[in-house]
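INFO  loader      accepted 1 record
INFO  loader      residues=90
INFO  predictor   begin
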Amino acid sequence: MGEQSRPRRPDELAKAWQALAERRREHLLRMYGNGRWRRYFSEERVMAYMRDTVRDIEGWSALTGRPPEHPGFPQEMLPDAKPDLPVAAE
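INFO  predictor   done
INFO  writer      dumping C-alpha cells
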C-alpha cells in the first residue's frame, strides 16, 4: 500500500495557505504588469482579486505570526482611480 500521510498541524496549514496567497499575489502582479489580465478579466474584477489577495495574505499572516514577504501592491502597478488597495511600503 501507499504511504499514509500524517495529519498536518494547524500552524503548518496556515503557513501553506499564506505561501499560496503570496504566490497568487505574484501571479496577479505579473499579469497586471504585462497586461495579460485584459484577456481574462475586467479591470474591476482584477482589482477585486487584488483586494481579496491582500486581505487573504494579511489574514494568514496574522494567524502564522509571519509577516508577508511583500505586503500590498506597488503603487506603480495600480491605476490612480483605485485608492482602496493596500500599497507596499517603500
